[in-house]
Each structure stands twice: as structure tokens, then as C-alpha cells.
Write a structure and sequence with these properties.
heterodimer, A: 664 residues, alpha+beta, 19 helices, disordered N terminus, B: 152 residues, alpha/beta, 5-stranded parallel β-sheet, 5 helices, 39% helix, globular
Chain lengths: 664, 152
């Protein structure tokens, strides 16, 4: 019935005799006029047309539209692919199946072509009723009327959806290959490069044009050429080489670490014709993994050789994840025993986690014990310092415990304490001994003062009585001897008095207050000058700062030093004595300088000993106690005394109330 | 030892025989004391003052013008003698001069705490010793006015 779509009316038929069926390419395939000779011929022709149409319907998707684009005819295939029924399609235009993916220009160009009478040929994506898309290769043939304008359009389509999908997949694949950072290379069974992607260009530095047709061995270091032989052998056998780590060369001669996967390429018949090679630059990965391995090794060594015990516990399960050899040795518990049970069941750390509940409560906290008693497997009691920390490893909480055996340290501390205690006891004992010695010394001085003075007084007294009452009975020599007895008795009395003073000075309490040095010096000088009126002396007194001292003892110091200066200048005319003070780091120092007899400095250390004298008694009188007393007084004040002297060139005595050996 | 204590000018308590002799010689030579009673130790000194044995009856005390007291004495020491003299109302008013060789601070302090009237260190030098005793005699026997009424 609808065969009339080709020839609707008699006029049209008539026309048809004068026109040719125009097929793509514009060639006339059926010279109709020549064949319309008879009814018979017409019938034959009609049959031919019907057959042709049947054949066309079998092969193609056919639709006919009027000049306005309304569908006037569709064949079965059209309905089948569009999933619309013929009734739904007729009278509609092609917008019904428009997929919307073609731009307006595409549609405009199509219409411009066919409305001008030209055949349009192209690929169109349409949308079926169920929303699915299909691709058709389309030829639209315009049929023109007498005025040369299209009368109708016949569209013949072929379903190319499968081809389009394959093309898209191939394009995607190609895009993947092209955009990959990995080098993807094709080669034949002789190792000749057949394809070379952008990743390969970037990785190896060769352009695709440089490598295509070249041997892959260009990339292989000479000493590794065997590798390629081996790989090709594998490929020929159909064996894939996966993640083979090796070294390859770049165009600039530098080497890089690569991981290579090579697989066989087969032709459609399944015959192996080449290989595809995917190479990944693992230089960075290798460096990272090497440094990771090095780091791991370092920390493992630390863990294994640490003096402290280290225990790593899974915070979730309470199971020991790792324990280092130090702790195994310390506690005498094997690695396997440690890992066998949750920490609270091990019975090792009952003071920290005795139960699962305690573990759960404490697992997120930092725990620290200075002295934690532990029982070892062999029953020893040890004491440890225990510190636990919690941190995340790959999202899982672990507890790290550091356990230091402080038993030895504790023992040392205790021993030290005992030593200190015994030292204190010894100091106490020694102090008592010293106190007792001091008491004995006091008793001795007491008895000296009483028992020695009386006989001396007797010698002195009775010598005088003999001189007074019995001198007539003595001759001159006898009287001289008597005089010597008297003089010796006097001297002995003086010695005893000096010695007692010296002894008392060491014992009596200091009464320290501010003392006017100038007043003390002037008083001493007045005393001494009173008994030296007949001498020519030049005495100069500089500025003397006040000081903190026991007044009577300080007076003794000044008196003794000044008395010495007077005494040892007795042969000088004039005697020159200079008294002054100096500013020192720790305070003031004072000095008495004379131009007298002086002494050799090599005897300076003897100068301050009791009864030590550097001069003969006939030359300079004295008991040898004066300077010893000076030193003792200064020592008791925390001060010191020192000298400078030369024989016959005078002496200088310096002293300070601070900076002495007993100071502070 | 029946002695009329009331007639004694000086009670001399001295154990050392040479010191005793020298002292007596100085007093005699300078005619300072007609009557000097001597005690050779602390016990004798107390006996002379208080009578031997049980505490003496009131009135049996004879009061010298001054007591010269050595400190280092046999039996009962000088400080104890001083303590007893100064702690008894009957003898408390007697001037006591400690005459000793001791320069020890503790002796000095203790003596004054017990109420000694004077503390003299015996000089070793005989000239000074003589001078010292002469001054003591002149002062206590002639300058000082003793308390003659019974205040007990």
C-alpha cells in the first residue's frame, strides 16, 4: 500500500519516467523511461521495485518525511530501533528521536543540504523511546518536484551503534595510553618498537618518531641485554612478565629504576606477534622504600639493643605486639610468653594493670611510676621506672611502655645515704673528740696559768729577797748570776703570759662590731711612741677605713704589727713606718711597712709559728708569739696575713679581715 | 686552832707555801697588817669562818677586815669557799679579794657572779707583785670603811 511513497500519483509516475532515481553519489542507476514500454514491462518493473523495497527494508532503517519534516513512512526496522510504534511515529517530525547531542549547526547544515536538493550523508545519534541511544549512519535523499524544490525526503539508515561503541572504547583506550605517566610501548618479537606513548617519551627522553622501528635494546644497559633476550623468550611462550624491577637508560645516558610488565600481543588468529611493555619509573619509590627500610632498620636496632625494656601493647586488645630483648632478659619471660595473653593476665604488671577494667581505664593515659616493684620469673624483686605513652599507628592506638631497671640505682642511692649517715656519725665522733681535746687543752692552760706562774714568781721573788737581804754575803760574780736568774725568771713569766694569751685567743668568743681602725691605730701608736721618745721616726698614717671585728683582738693585731715595726727599726735613723689601707676584691686590706731589718722571704712561712724567731734575742727581744697571735686572730675573723720583705730592706705586713682559708 | 678571829685584819687563804711566804713578807715589811690568819685550803678557810663541824651558833663568827682568797685550793676550791661566804648572811658583808694566778675568763665571770669584791691576778714579776699587795693592804685596811654593825 505504501509503495506509493516512491510514486504517489499518476502524474508522479509520469514524472518518474522522466526522472531518475538518484542514489548517493548522484549516479543514475535505473534508466526508467527506457524500460516503460509495456504493461508487462511495467508489471515486471513493479515487481522489481517491490523486491528492491523488501530487500531494502531487510537491510536498512527507512523513513520518509514530507518537506516540513513530518514523518510519512517508517519501516519495521525504524520502529524496532526507535522502540516507537508506527502510529506513534507517523505525523511526528524527527525531533521525537533527537538525542540532543548534535549542535544546532549540525541540524541546520543537514536541512540546508537536503532542502537545496543535495543528498546528505552522516552519522546521527538518536534517542529511542526508552531513553537509550543509538547511532545510525544516515543517507537522506531529497525528491524534487517540477519546481526543483523537495517533495519528500527518503532517509535510509544503518545501525552503527556497536561500531560507535567500539570506536569510543578504542578512543578511550588510546587516550588512556596517551595520558599515562607509565611508558607503554609496543614491540615485535624481535624487540623492534612499534608504538611509543607520551609517557615513554617523557620517561626515556626519545620521541615516538625516534624510537618507532628501532630496537628496544637502546634503552637497556649493555650489561642487562640478556634480560631482553629472556623477556622475549618468555613472551614467545605466551608467558607474561610482571613487575620486573630493573634499570633502563634515558636518552641523556642517565639511568632510572623501572618496574616492567610485559604481555604478549596476539593477532586475531591468536598468534603471538609482539609484546606490550608497561614501564613504571620507580626511582622515587625505590629511594623512599630504601630510606624506609634504613629507618626501620635503625629503629629496630634501637629497639633491640636498648638498655631500657620496651613493650608495645595493642590498646584495643591489650595484647603485647612486641617486646624487646632487654625486657625479656630483665623479667625472664620469653617473647612467646609475652605475646600469649592480654597484658593484665601476664601477672607482670599488677601494680599498673591488674585487670582488663584497669587496663581500659588507663589505656588512654600516660602512666609514670618512679619506683615500681616488679617480680621477675625467677623470683627476684626488682624496681623499675615505668613510663607508658599512647599513640596512633595507622589509625590504631598502641601503648608503648619504657621500663628501666633502677634496682642498681636505688641500691647505690641507699648505699650513698648510708655512707652519708656514717659520715655524719664520723663527723660527730670527730667533733666530740675535738671538743674533748679542746677541753684537755683548756685544762692544760689553766694549770699552766696557775702552776707555772707560781714557781716563776717564787724564783723572781726569792732572788729579789736574796739581793735585798743577803747581797753583802755575795761577791760580784754571785750578784751577776743572781741578776741572770732574775732576768730569766722575768723572761719565763713573759713567755707564759704570751702563751696563755695565744691559747685564750683561740677559744674566746668573738664580739664583732664596727671598729674605727684609725682610733685603734692611733691608740697603739701613742702607747708605743711613749716608750720610744728618744728615737727619730717618720710615721705616716694613710686613710684607714673602719672594719667589722672584735675590737680588743683587732687592737692586739695592730699593736703587735706596729710593735714589730718599732722593734725592727730600732737601728734605723730615721725609722720610717708607713701605715695604710688598700681596696681589694673581697674588701679592704691594711698594711704596716717599715725600713727595718727585714728578713729573707724563704723563712716567711716560719714567721707566723709560735715561738718562731728569725733574729737573735740579743739583737731583738721577743718571745716569738706576736705574729702567731696576729695570724690566729685574723684566722678567727676569716681573714689572712701576708708579708713582703728583704733582709735589711724592711718588711711590709699586710692583713685583711676577709678571704682567709677559714672564711665563710 | 683557838684564834681570836675578831682581832684578825686579814684572812689569807693560800695553799702555795712560797706565795704564802712572799705575801706575808710583803705585808710584814710594809707594816700593813699586824694579824694575818692563814688557811691552807678551802676546808680550813670555812672552818675558820664558821667553826668546825655543824653550822655554828650565831655570834661565833669572827669577821676579818678582808679575805684574800686563792682560787686553786686543795679539798674545797676557792670559788666554792666564795659561794659559801657570799650565800651566808653572817659572812656576806666581808670584803673578799680573789688573789689568783688564773687569768681565765670563766674564773673571773664566776667570781663576780658570786659577789666577789675584787679580782686580782698575781703578777709574776716580784716588783709588781709587791706593789700589788701593798696597794691591796692600804686600800682594804686603811681606805675602805668596813661594815661593823651586824646586819644579819
Amino acid at each position: 500500500m505504501k509503495m506509493g511513497t516512491l510514486h504517489d500519483t499518476a502524474e508522479e509516475k509520469q514524472e518518474a519516467t522522466q526522472t531518475s532515481l538518484v542514489v548517493p553519489g548522484g549516479s543514475k542507476i535505473i534508466p526508467l523511461a527506457e524500460r516503460l514500454h509495456s504493461e508487462t514491462e511495467l508489471k515486471t518493473l513493479l515487481r522489481e521495485v517491490i523486491d528492491l523495497k523488501a530487500a531494502l527494508d531487510e537491510h536498512a532503517i527507512v523513513a520518509i518525511t514530507d518537506p516540513q519534516g513530518r514523518i510519512t513512512y517508517v519501516n519495521e526496522k525504524f520502529c524496532a530501533i526507535s522502540k516507537y510504534s508506527r502510529e506513534e511515529l507517523l505525523g511526528q517530525d524527527h525531533r521525537l528521536i533527537n538525542s540532543g547531542i548534535h549542535p544546532p549547526e549540525f541540524i541546520r547544515h543537514l536541512w540546508a543540504t537536503i532542502s537545496s536538493g543535495e543528498v546528505w550523508h552522516g552519522e546521527i545519534k538518536n534517542r529511542a523511546k526508552d531513553g537509550s541511544f543509538y547511532w545510525v549512519e544516515t543517507t537522506i535523499v531529497p525528491f524534487l518536484n517540477d519546481h526543483g524544490t523537495p517533495r519528500q525526503y527518503v532517509a535510509i539508515r544503518a545501525d552503527i551503534t556497536a561500531r560507535k561503541k567500539a570506536e569510543a572504547a578504542a578512543a578511550q583506550l588510546a587516550a588512556i595510553v596517551e595520558s599515562s605517566d607509565d611508558a607503554i610501548v609496543g614491540k615485535d618479537l624481535n624487540g623492534i618498537v612499534t608504538s611509543w606513548n607520551a609517557g615513554a617519551e617523557k620517561m626515556f627522553g626519545y620521541r615516538a618518531a625516534e624510537m618507532t622501528g628501532e630496537s628496544i635494546r637502546r634503552l637497556i644497559p649493555p650489561e642487562r641485554h640478556d634480560e631482553e633476550t629472556h623477556i622475549l623468550r618468555q613472551i614467545r611462550r605466551g608467558v607474561c612478565v610482571r613487575h620486573f624491577e630493573t634499570v633502563r637508560l634515558r636518552q641523556d645516558g642517565t639511568s632510572l629504576n623501572v618496574s616492567v610488565t610485559v604481555s604478549a600481543i596476539r593477532d586475531s588468529g591468536g598468534k603471538i606477534i609482539g609484546a606490550s611493555k608497561v614501564a613504571r619509573d620507580v626511582t622515587d619509590e625505590k629511594r623512599i622504600s630504601e630510606s624506609l627500610a634504613a629507618s626501620e632498620l635503625r629503629y629496630r636496632r634501637l629497639f633491640e639493643t636498648a638498655q631500657d625494656g620496651i613493650l608495645i601493647v595493642d590498646a584495643q586488645t591489650g595484647m603485647v605486639a612486641n617486646v624487646n630483648p632487654s625486657l625479656i632478659t630483665t623479667l625472664g619471660v620469653s617473647h612467646e610468653q609475652f605475646l600469649a595473653k592480654p597484658i593484665w593476665e601476664l601477672g607482670l604488671f599488677n601494680d599498673v594493670w591488674a585487670t582488663e577494667k584497669e587496663f581500659t581505664e588507663l589505656k588512654d593515659k600516660r602512666v609514670r611510676y618512679e619506683h615500681l616493684p616488679l617480680q621477675t620469673r625467677d623470683g627476684r624483686r626488682i624496681e623499675v621506672e615505668f613510663v607508658s605513652n599512647v599513640y596512633l599507628v595507622n589509625g590504631a592506638k598502641v601503648i608503648q611502655c619504657n621500663i628501666r631497671d633502677v634496682t642498681a640505682r636505688r641500691q647505690a642511692e641507699e648505699a650513698l645515704q648510708q655512707l652519708n649517715a656514717s659520715l655524719e656519725q664520723r663527723v660527730l665522733d670527730r667533733t666530740l673528740q675535738l671538743e674533748s681535746a679542746n677541753r684537755e687543752l683548756e685544762a692544760f692552760s689553766y694549770s699552766v696559768s696557775h702552776d707555772l706562774r707560781a714557781p716563776v714568781r717564787a724564783i723572781s721573788g726569792f732572788s729579789r729577797i736574796v739581793r735585798e737581804d743577803h747581797s753583802a754575803a755575795l761577791e760580784a760574780e754571785g750578784l751577776r748570776y743572781l741578776g741572770l736568774v732574775e732576768k730569766s725568771a722575768l723572761q719565763m713569766g713573759q713567755l707564759i703570759d704570751d702563751l696563755l694569751t695565744f691559747s685564750r685567743t683561740g677559744r674566746q668568743a668573738l664580739r664583732v662590731r664596727t671598729v674605727s681602725t684609725t682610733d685603734v691605730v692611733n691608740a697603739c701608736l701613742a702607747d708605743l711612741q711613749a716608750s720610744n721618745t728618744d728615737r727619730r721616726m717618720v710615721i705616716s698614717v694613710g686613710e684607714l677605713p673602719d672594719c667589722e671585728a672584735d675590737c680588743s683582738l683587732l687592737r692586739q693585731v695592730w699593736f703587735n704589727l706596729l710593735e714589730n715595726a718599732f722593734k725592727y727599726t730600732q737601728k734605723c735613723d730615721p725609722a720610717v713606718i708607713t701605715i695604710g689601707a688598700r681596696q681589694e676584691a673581697g674588701g679592704n686590706s691594711y698594711f704596716v711597712q717599715d725600713n727595718g731589718a727585714g728578713f729573707d722571704m724563704k723563712y716567711a712561712d716560719k714567721l707566723f709559728g709560735v715561738f718562731q724567731r728569725l733574729h737573735l734575742a740579743e739583737e731583738y727581744e721577743g718571745t716569738g708569739v706576736g705574729l702567731a697571735l696576729v695570724r690566729r686572730i685574723l684566722q678567727r675573723h676569716g681573714g689572712r696575713v701576708w708579708t713582703e720583705a728583704k733582709p735589711n730592706e724592711g718588711a711590709t705586713f699586710h692583713f685583711a679581715l676577709t678571704g682567709g682559708p677559714d672564711a665563710g | 686552832m683557838p684564834v681570836d678571829y675578831g682581832e684578825a685584819d686579814i684572812l689569807l687563804v693560800e695553799d702555795n707555801p712560797t706565795d704564802l711566804e712572799l705575801t706575808l713578807r710583803v705585808f710584814k715589811k710594809h707594816q700593813l697588817a699586824n694579824r694575818i690568819e692563814v688557811a691552807r685550803d678551802g676546808v680550813e678557810a670555812l672552818d675558820l669562818l664558821f667553826g668546825r663541824g655543824a653550822p655554828p651558833e650565831r655570834g661565833s663568827i669572827r669577821i676579818p677586815k678582808v679575805i684574800l682568797l686563792d682560787l686553786k685550793l686543795p679539798k674545797i676550791g676557792g670559788l666554792e669557799v666564795l659561794r659559801r661566804i657570799k650565800s651566808d648572811a653572817r659572812t656576806r658583808t666581808i670584803p673578799v679579794v680573789v688573789l689568783t694566778s688564773s687569768q681565765e675568763e670563766q674564773d673571773l665571770v664566776r667570781s663576780y657572779q658570786l659577789g666577789v669584791n675584787s679580782y686580782i691576778v698575781k703578777p709574776v714579776n716580784f716588783d709588781q707583785f709587791t706593789d700589788c699587795l701593798r696597794q691591796i693592804g692600804i686600800y682594804w685596811l686603811f681606805c675602805n670603811a668596813p661594815l661593823n654593825i651586824d646586819v644579819a
